[in-house]
Design goal:
The protein is mostly helical. Helix content is 75%, strand content 0%. The radius of gyration is 21 Å and the shape is globular. The relative contact order is 0.20. The structure holds phenylalanine. Phenylalanine (PHE) binds next to helix 1, helix 2, helix 10 and helix 14.
Length: 451
């Protein structure tokens, strides 16, 4: 077998992992959760969750990847030969497969909205036009299938080129682009005449809104946002070379992801307040991005239409870039699995994954139109994929990964290789062994209102 590829530079490794972490979750969930749960108070709790839980779990996933030099399923098999731990990796691969199918649908919409905004299609629309516009687009079977397929083809284009020439090269282009767009949008938004109230809302902590449920939901959001629990980071870490410092890489990724999430708040809230719009609880996810925000942008920039035009184009481009870099990591989990475990060459493995995902993703995308009345366990296909992967499989595989690293691997991997000071190592070990499993169980039960 040919030698396993590695990332060519430390920066490449950081940007690729940050690309996985920074995704739709940063833009369509984090700001709204912040808005509903006490503004800066929520941000403080969230940062606490990242430092205390997200960071240690990311380190453990990096350890599993870096020391096994193997895809997610193969990693558990290699580090725990002859045991059933391999199933944890397999669940991870399966979860990645489910997430990418529904994620691609949304990535497709962001692509479509980028084109719509470039074509100035929001011009002259009024508040009541946006919901029918989005509903018509998402219900149209041809458009849904076409955009979902296009999102997969873009991902395939990069993945088929390999680790250095594909994932690393494009992460090095796309992540700085994403960063620059974010900064431009923040500057435009905070300079709107009515932005002050939005900024005030984001920075003034209201601790009365914080309770156990809010903390658990912040923790769930932190895990999802850092792409933890299903092997994306294990797979990427398997491409780290020996000189990659696990702790520094994890620190950088946690920082970039949190920074972009907070900045998304500074893009959305000043504009929302400036437009005099009061956010409703249902303004989360697709309806926030594709119905509420185009209207908000249109109103906020009514006196400077060209700026409004640019703002909308850049905003949807930002979402598209964020979604695609996350899709790369999800696609890579499955592609690397087929490539390593079944000895299929990389291009063929990537093609196979893309074709199967396009078929499933396309069927799933019909959940908003022709298949909207087709329910399994009371859920449309899109919701089924989303719920099963994010609410059930992610916590289960995250829990098992932390037990694996904390209790099984702990005795078997030399602690020197962690590259950490003794005290930090002790804290991280304690967190992974006791706190993380406990909290993941709590998040899980909380989601189903069992806690
Ligand atoms: N972290 C991504 C986001 O914030 C989502 C994701 C989860 C991507 C798990 C890959 C794996 O949107």
């Amino acid at each position: 077998m040919s030698e396993r590829e590695t990332f060519g530079s430390k920066m490449g490794a950081i940007l690729a992992a940050a690309g996985s972490a920074v995704g739709l979750g940063n833009v369509w969930r984090f700001p709204i959760e912040t808005g509903q749960n006490g503004g800066a108070a929520y941000i403080i709790i969230y940062i606490g969750c990242i430092i205390l839980m997200g960071f240690p779990v990311m380190i453990s996933e990096f350890i599993v990847g870096k020391f096994s030099h193997s895809n997610t399923a193969g990693a558990f098999q290699k580090l725990a030969p002859g045991t059933q731990w391999k199933w944890v990796g397999r669940i991870g691969v399966f979860t990645g497969f489910l997430i990418i199918c529904y994620y691609a649908i949304v990535a497709g919409w962001t692509m479509e909205y980028t084109f719509l905004s470039i074509a100035n299609q929001f011009d002259g629309k009024s508040v009541n036009d946006y919901a029918p516009m989005f509903n018509e687009l998402s219900a149209n079977p041809w458009k849904s299938v076409l955009w979902t397929t296009l999102a997969f083809l873009v991902t395939f284009y990069v993945i088929a080129r390999g680790v250095q020439k594909g994932i690393e090269k494009y992460s090095k282009i796309l992540m700085p682009t994403l960063f620059i767009i974010t900064v431009i949008l923040v500057v435009c938004s905070v300079n709107l005449p009515g932005a002050g109230a939005g900024i005030d809302f984001l920075v003034r902590p209201d601790f009365s809104k914080i309770n156990g449920k809010v903390v658990l939901s912040a923790l769930g959001q932190a895990f999802y946002s850092l792409s933890l629990g299903m092997g994306c980071l294990i797979t990427y870490a398997s491409y780290f070379n020996d000189s990659t410092n696990i702790r520094k890489t994890a620190l950088n990724v946690c920082f970039i992801d949190t920074f972009i999430a907070v900045m998304a708040g500074f893009i959305i809230f000043p504009a929302v307040f400036d437009a005099g719009y009061s956010l409703q609880p249902e303004d989360i996810g697709p309806s926030l991005i594709f119905i509420t925000l185009p209207n908000v942008f249109q109103q906020s920039f009514a006196s400077a239409p060209f700026l409004g035009y640019l703002f909308a184009v850049l905003f949807y481009l930002l979402l598209f870039v964020a979604a695609v870099t996350s899709m790369l990591s999800l696609h890579e989990v499955v592609t690397a699995y087929l490539h390593d475990e079944f000895n299929i060459n990389r291009k063929k493995a990537a093609t196979l994954v893309t074709v199967v995902c396009i078929i499933l993703g396309a069927v799933c995308s019909l959940s908003f139109g022709v298949l909207k009345d087709f329910h399994i366990f009371g859920l449309t296909l899109f919701d089924l994929f989303d719920t099963t992967s994010s609410n059930i499989l992610l916590p289960i595989s995250g829990l098992l990964t932390s037990i694996f690293v904390g209790w099984y691997l702990d005795k078997r991997i030399e602690h020197e290789s962690w590259n950490m000071k003794p005290l930090s190592k002790r804290i991280i070990r304690f967190t992974i062994r006791y706190l993380v499993p406990l909290f993941i169980i709590a998040i899980f039960l909380n989601q189903f209102d069992l806690l």
